[in-house]
Amino acid sequence: SLMIIWQINNESLPFADANDFIGTSGLISNFFLNGNILEGLWELFSAKPWRPLSFHLILFPFMLISGNNILFTATCVHSLCLFFIIIYSYYIFRKLSECKISCFICAVFIGLLPYSFFPGGDYMLFAETALTPAVLAVIYHLYSSDYMRIKKHSFYSLIAMIIAFTVRPIEAITHLLPILIFFIYLGYKNKV
Fold this sequence. Notes:
Blueprint: H1 2-9, H2 17-33, H3 37-46, H4 55-66, H5 70-96, H6 100-112, H7 114-117, H8 128-144, H9 151-167, H10 169-189
């Protein structure tokens, strides 16, 4: 709720990289809003912003729903990513503790940290907004997959890795490489 209150009072527009993501998702949604469904579908798969990232695809549904309202899109994307940060933090803490209340409090605390609450730092709608929940999802699902023996969690960890690597490739490597090395090491050590 704090994120929504902050976003309601926020009237600053995105700039730098965020303009490129907004512009590309707005271009795609304009095709759908103008009734050019086939061209919109084509652009959905072929239009790319200046940086080869997929973050504009996360913005696209909210731009389409709102008729290209940038502030509404920013509010929805930030709130959605904060929701996933809190949910996956809670799930990770539940793996470590049996007390649901303390896990909930810890997850909310993680959600209130500056880089969770403002994922792009001082800037709105940077691709880092979606990186943190994707990394947390990878950690949770890798841990829950029992060294890739549980198919459901293995699949979800793969989806989370794809999101992380397509949203911010270099940062995903620096964040996930130590986790993947440790995961492979533990699997080798446990003869899996």
